[in-house]
Write a structure and sequence with these properties.
heterodimer, A: about 130 residues, mainly alpha, 3 helical TM bundles of succinate and fumarate reductases, 5 helices, about 0% strand, elongated, B: about 130 residues, binds protoporphyrin IX containing FE, transport (chain A), tricarboxylic acid cycle (chain A), SuccDH_FuR_B_TM-su (chain A), metal-binding (chain A), Succ_DH_anchor (chain A)
């Protein structure tokens, strides 16, 4: 079977998929925007909760942070923010780190860091909620 | 520079130092810098939550750190970075609709972002210090 254009090395299948040479298409751009939008209300609400907690003794802080509504908001915020910062930092790494080895290390380190921060935070909130 | 045989003498594309610094390009890089600062700010927030989940003692230590001069400066910087990055994100949303690229509009948007972030941060901290 012949190609569409005489010079293209791209297969017909890859054209239909429309994901380009990086194989992920516009997925990152889209998720950056979805999480950015979710971040606005979630981060503002989380900020309000944390300002409430600031300076309170432990028992009161636990009562505020562990309230189901506060805990749910905090978990949603952490989920959205850590996804957003992972794909955001990936773009920054791809822009500035060009040596192949260092780039792969930084990209993997970014995934590890964001996943660890997300799960540690979510675990902490659940523990606070269910009883310290 | 090594030249592969037969490669054309192409002009190099001009880089940052060749352009006159402008507000719009400064705001672009500040959006990236604040994004990276917030990346580590998320870690600090989670560290605070984990301390709260560990024990009242760990919570007291974390609260003491947050309440210290350095802690307050970090939190002040964090809220500014957050508000600035959020306004910058909203600017991106406006651009995503195709609006706001004109010579006047993009300058106005940049001014709103920096002015808005400074004013809102000061208002927020004034409110916090008044109430707390
Ligand atoms: C604590 C919360 C946040 C963190 C840790 C964070 C982190 C980041 C990072 C690391 C980047 C990549 C920077 C770059 O590519 O230049 C980024 C980009 C971006 N952020 Fe955030 N961000 C946060 C909150 C927000 C919020 C609330 C918005 C809401 C409007 C937002 C909107 C955006 C947008 C639109 C981009 C992409 C910019 C572009 O396409 O060049 N971010 N963020």
């Amino acid at each position: 079977m012949s190609n569409h254009s005489g010079t293209s090395m791209r297969t017909t299948r890859s054209r239909v998929q429309g994901l380009g040479s990086a194989r992920s298409g516009t997925g990152h751009f889209w998720w950056q925007r979805v999480t950015a939008l979710a971040n606005i209300p979630l981060v503002l609400a989380a900020l309000a909760i944390l300002i409430c907690v600031a300076g309170k003794p432990h028992a009161e802080a636990v009562a505020v942070l562990g309230h189901p509504l506060a805990a749910i908001v905090l978990i949603l915020a952490l989920f959205s923010v850590t996804t957003h910062m992972r794909i955001g930092m990936q773009v920054v790494i791809e822009d500035y780190v060009h040596a192949e080895g260092a780039k792969v290390l930084a990209l993997v380190g970014n995934i590890f860091f964001c996943t660890a921060v997300a799960l540690a935070g979510i675990f902490a909130i659940l523990k606070i909620s269910f009883g310290v | 520079m090594s030249q592969t045989p037969g490669s054309a003498q192409r002009p190099l594309s001009p880089h940052l130092q060749i352009y006159r610094p402008m507000l719009t390009m400064t705001m672009s890089i500040v959006h990236r810098i604040t994004g990276c600062a917030l990346y580590f700010g998320t870690f600090l927030l989670v560290a605070f939550l984990v301390a709260t989940a560990i024990s009242p003692r760990a919570y007291e230590t974390a609260s003491w750190l947050a309440g210290s001069i350095v802690g307050k400066l970090v939190m002040f910087g964090y809220t500014w970075a957050l508000i600035h990055h959020m306004l910058g994100g909203i600017r991106h949303f406006i651009w995503d609709t195709g609006a706001g690229f004109g010579a006047v509009a993009r300058e106005r948007l940049a001014q709103f972002t920096i002015g808005g972030s400074v004013v809102l941060t000061i208002v927020l901290w004034a409110a916090i210090l008044l109430v707390k």
